[in-house]
């Protein structure tokens, strides 16, 4: 079954909000409520046997604020399908798919840790990189790069890092090495 | 009739060294610094290279990498100290017996390095008293050896008994 057949089958069975093709890759935006059924259908009927990754995007200032992106793959046929759904800030919660692909367990924990999106039905939704009790979600756009102060006694503490005029950014340009140097350029330049 | 033997044994002269206690203790300490290798990131690879045959940290008496803090003299913090790891590093430091020294190896351990970030401790000197900072990202093994020799010179200048006593008194009070 080719990728276009899989997409047609998905569109016939579920509501697809938008479809985006870019450089041979297809991304379908689906309804948040449907994600478990869609994933189960993709795995069991369409043969997407491998979940590459789940990641999240913070479109700060927009509504709905967050996006969760699922990267599905068929290993033998080398097909790649991208599913997206949007999550609002008021209710940052998505159903867990860790009972369909067990690898989703840690991906969802990472999203919970870094972005603060909870996954209902997850068997073990703990932070994976930061420690229990850390009060912030560091990958959100309104979280400063240098961090904020926090303290969990006997576990860990954090302080804001001195950025000394940064964060410094680098952008592609034809300028000389001296002007291209990231330290020469501020974020708002 | 046996020959009378002299009570004075002239041979003993070659076996006696007169020195100060400080100098003797410092000499012993500085030439057998057992490191606690706190390898946290890529600096630890250079630390391993410094311990291997080519650079051979054994030439300076510091080849006995003790992974038990209670048997070590100098903690070499080699790598990025994240906040998640920071209190574990401090606990290991607290388990090391006096006298003890600390080498901050590389940019991250010295100052946080390029990680001006929410997750990285901005220099291990916020938690431990650091004796020697080594620049580099990561430092070459030669730089680590230079740092070790710097520490040896520093130990040589310490008044070992007095310093020891002060720490001891502070621990009682």
Total strands of chain B: the figure is: 4
CATH class of chain B: Alpha Beta
Instruction: Give unreliable regions of chain A as ranges.
Output: none
Radius of gyration of chain B: 21 Å
Order of helices and strands of chain A: HEEHEEEEHEEEH
* Domain module count of chain B: 1
Structure described in brief:
Chain A has helices at residues 3-13, 35-44, 104-115, 177-180; strands spanning 16-22, 25-30, 50-58, 66-74, 79-87, 93-95, 118-120, 150-152, 156-158. Chain A has 189 residues and is an alpha/beta fold.
Question: Can you describe what's shown?
Answer:
The complex is a heterodimer of chains A (about 190) and B (about 170). Chain A contains four helices and nine strands. In chain A, strands 1-2-5-4-3 form a five-stranded mixed beta sheet. Chain A has a two-stranded parallel ribbon with strand order 6-7. Chain A has a two-stranded antiparallel sheet with strand order 8-9. Helices cover about 20% and strands about 30% of the residues of chain A. In chain A, strand 1 and strand 2 form a beta hairpin. Chain A is globular. Chain A has a single domain, classed as NADH:ubiquinone oxidoreductase Nqo5 subunit (Beta Polymerase, domain 2). Chain A is of the alpha/beta class and about 190 residues long. Chain B contains six helices and four strands; from the N terminus they run αβαβαβαβαα. The radius of gyration of chain B is 21 Å and the shape is elongated. By secondary structure, chain B is α/β, with parallel strands linked by helices. Chain B has one domain: Rossmann fold, CATH 3.40.50. Chain B has a four-stranded parallel beta sheet. Classes of the chains: A alpha/beta (about 190), B alpha/beta (about 170).
């Amino acid at each position: 079954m080719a990728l276009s057949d899989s997409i047609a089958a998905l569109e016939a069975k579920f509501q697809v909000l938008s479809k985006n093709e870019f450089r041979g890759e297809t991304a379908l935006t689906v309804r948040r409520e449907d994600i478990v059924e869609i994933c189960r259908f993709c795995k069991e009927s369409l043969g997407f046997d491998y979940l590459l990754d789940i990641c999240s995007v913070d479109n700060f200032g927009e509504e709905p604020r967050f996006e969760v992106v699922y990267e599905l793959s068929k290993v033998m046929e080398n097909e790649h399908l991208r599913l997206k759904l949007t999550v609002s800030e008021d209710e940052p919660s998505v159903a867990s798919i860790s009972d369909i692909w067990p690898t989703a367990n840690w991906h969802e924990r990472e999203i919970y840790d870094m972005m603060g999106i909870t996954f209902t039905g997850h068997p073990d939704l703990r932070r994976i990189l930061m420690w229990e009790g850390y009060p912030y979600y560091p990958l959100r756009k309104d979280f400063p790069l240098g961090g904020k102060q926090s303290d969990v006694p006997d576990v860990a503490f954090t302080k804001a890092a001195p950025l000394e005029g940064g964060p410094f950014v680098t952008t592609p340009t034809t300028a000389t090495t001296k002007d291209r140097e990231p330290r020469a350029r501020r974020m708002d330049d | 009739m046996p020959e009378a033997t002299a009570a004075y044994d002239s041979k003993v002269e070659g076996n006696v060294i007169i020195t100060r206690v400080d100098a003797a203790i410092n000499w012993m300490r500085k030439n057998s610094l057992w490191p606690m290798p706190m390898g946290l990131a890529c600096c630890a690879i250079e630390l391993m290279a410094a311990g291997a045959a080519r650079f051979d940290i054994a030439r300076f008496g510091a080849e006995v990498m003790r992974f038990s803090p209670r048997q070590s003299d100098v903690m070499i913090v080699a790598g990025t100290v994240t906040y998640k790891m920071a209190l574990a590093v401090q606990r290991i430091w607290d388990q090391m017996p006096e006298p003890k020294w600390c080498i901050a190896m590389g940019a991250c351990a010295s100052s946080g390095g390029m990680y001006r970030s929410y997750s990285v401790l901005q220099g291990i000197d916020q938690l431990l008293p650091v004796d020697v900072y080594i620049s580099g990202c990561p430092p070459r093994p030669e730089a680590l050896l230079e740092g070790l020799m710097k520490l040896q010179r520093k130990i040589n200048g310490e008044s070992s008994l007095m310093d020891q006593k002060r720490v001891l008194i502070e621990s009682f009070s």
